């Protein structure tokens, strides 16, 4: 049987990266399925460049042939922002081959890596050089730094070190025209015009393709201690956070809150993890104290904090990890909540941020609202209370039809939750991004002025609309967007 010749676009892509790295046949599901299995697309081709110059050549080929491009890193996103659509016309550009650590500048406290570098490998390279790269999240063994920057990822250390944006000093980016912007400066001060770096961070590949980054390093702490505390209410958790800020200062590097039902799922599906203190308490908190003096100093501060909290009533019981193994075990419980929720069945995820002071009122109001509107609904509340980010997830009623629940109730639940977020002056996406999952909702919760500015930026940088279309902004060209509910 005679094979038909490749199309001109496929030939151009093969010339750009080599025929072996343009995949058009076989099992491409690892690239075409999103991590949550919410969507399955079909790529015209999966292209795997090895350098910024090859990425630029791929973009130029796509521009010449009018093909849209979907950039992809580790494909661990939760907002369906890095898989192709179902048309079979999009080029999926995988950055996984671009995984090198280019340089460590110890005096400048920076590390420069390529976009496909897995976050855990980046952490390891920093540690091998004697430093800390603090970005940490559950998917760190498979997510890439390019994807982290494209979504402005957060994780468990934001309370001290900030989101990915705060950890980045410079970028290398391939533009929508196929040019390479080399902005890998390690400067902490540079007032020479618009901040292009911050424009590309968080843009989810809709303006250009991040190919490398220069990132901040920090001295490694002399000691790191972890505590697990039971608290009687969300307000008590907020009070404990304030006390921790006052007593630990910059040493407070983690502050996570976990609801009783969320922890009961971990206990149910992973009983070997031995979840402490949750059966008698509606909420538990996980605290981390990083100390640059000594373990004895860190432990003394921690014990003083917890003693004051117990006396004040914002903590009812607490345990402090005695060693690194115990500390990792406590963190493993927290990180297992999404996995336990998946084991329980299909669910509706929300990644929201609220001013910390308003979180107790939001939770009380929205819990009651959902319970009233959908009898039997189960709420999986947990997240990064230290920076006001909740994963306010909704599980189908027990013994119900979870698929039917998602089909019939997801849009209504999203609207109820997002309206409550807007009433409390929050954001419908804290760290996961908008992707395609929330793109249609964004115009209801972003002002028309803000959406107009965003569309103007998109038009200026990607006038042909080839970069990850349908993500963040909908294809509506009117720019009206709508007003917050």
TrEMBL record:
Limits of the FAD-binding PCMH-type domain: 39-220
GO MF annotation: an example: FAD binding
Alphabetized PROSITE patterns for the sequence: FAD_PCMH
Cofactor: FAD
Keyword Zinc annotated: no
A GO BP entry: respiratory electron transport chain
InterPro entries documented for this protein: FAD-bd_oxidored_4_C, FAD-bd_PCMH, FAD-bd_PCMH-like_sf, FAD-bd_PCMH_sub1, FAD-bd_PCMH_sub2, FAD-linked_Oxase-like_C, FAD-oxidored/transferase_4, Oxid_FAD_bind_N
Record keywords: FAD, Flavoprotein
Key word Transport present: no
Spans annotated as Disordered: 465-485
Protein family according to the UniProt entry: Belongs to the FAD-binding oxidoreductase/transferase type 4 family.
Database matches in PANTHER family: BLL6224 PROTEIN, D-2-HYDROXYGLUTARATE DEHYDROGENASE, MITOCHONDRIAL
Name of the protein described by the UniProt record: Hydroxyacid dehydrogenase
Native source species: Ottowia oryzae
Taxonomic lineage of the native organism: Bacteria, Pseudomonadati, Pseudomonadota, Betaproteobacteria, Burkholderiales
């Amino acid at each position: 049987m005679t094979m038909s010749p490749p199309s001109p676009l496929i030939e151009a892509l093969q010339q750009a990266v080599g025929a072996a790295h343009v995949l058009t046949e076989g099992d491409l599901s690892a690239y075409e399925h999103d991590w949550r299995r919410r969507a399955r697309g079909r790529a015209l081709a999966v292209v795997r460049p090895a350098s910024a110059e090859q990425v630029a050549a791929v973009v130029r080929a796509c521009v010449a042939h009018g093909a849209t491009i979907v950039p992809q890193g580790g494909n661990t996103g939760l907002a369906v922002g890095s898989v192709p659509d179902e048309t079979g016309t999009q080029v999926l550009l995988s950055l996984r081959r671009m995984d090198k650590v280019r340089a460590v500048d110890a005096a400048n406290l920076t590390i420069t890596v390529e976009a496909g570098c897995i976050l855990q490998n980046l952490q390891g390279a920093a540690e091998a050089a004697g430093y800390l790269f603090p970005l940490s999240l559950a998917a760190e063994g498979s997510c890439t730094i390019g994807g982290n920057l494209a979504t402005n990822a957060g994780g468990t250390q934001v309370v001290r070190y900030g989101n990915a944006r705060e950890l980045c000093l410079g970028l290398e980016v391939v533009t929508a025209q196929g040019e390479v912007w080399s902005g890998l400066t390690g400067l902490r001060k540079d007032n020479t015009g618009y901040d292009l770096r911050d424009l590309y961070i968080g843009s989810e590949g809709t303006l250009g393709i991040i190919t490398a980054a220069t990132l901040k390093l920090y001295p490694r702490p002399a000691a790191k201690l972890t505590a697990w505390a039971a608290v009687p209410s969300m307000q008590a958790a907020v009070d404990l956070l304030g006390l921790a800020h006052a007593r630990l200062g910059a040493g407070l590097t983690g502050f996570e809150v976990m609801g009783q039902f969320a922890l009961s799922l971990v206990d149910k599906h992973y009983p070997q993890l031995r979840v402490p203190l949750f059966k008698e308490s509606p909420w538990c908190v996980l605290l981390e104290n990083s100390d640059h003096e000594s373990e004895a100093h860190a432990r003394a501060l921690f014990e003083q904090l917890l003693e004051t909290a117990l006396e004040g009533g914002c903590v009812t019981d607490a345990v402090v990890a005695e060693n690194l193994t115990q500390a990792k075990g406590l963190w493993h419980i927290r990180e297992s909540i999404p996995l336990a929720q998946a084991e329980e069945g299909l669910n509706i995820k929300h990644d929201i941020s609220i001013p910390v002071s308003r979180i107790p009122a939001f939770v009380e109001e929205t819990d009651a609202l959902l319970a009233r509107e959908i009898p039997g609904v189960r709420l999986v509340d947990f997240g990064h209370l230290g920076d006001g980010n909740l994963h306010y997830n909704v599980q189908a009623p027990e013994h119900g039809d979870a698929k039917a629940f998602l089909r019939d109730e997801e849009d209504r639940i999203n609207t109820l939750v997002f309206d409550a977020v807007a009433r409390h002056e929050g954001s419908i996406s804290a760290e996961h991004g908008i992707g395609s999952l929330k793109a249609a909702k964004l115009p209801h919760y972003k002002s028309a002025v803000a959406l107009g500015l965003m569309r103007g930026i998109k038009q200026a940088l990607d006038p042909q609309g080839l970069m990850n279309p349908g993500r963040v902004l909908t294809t509506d060209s009117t720019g009206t967007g709508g007003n917050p509910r």
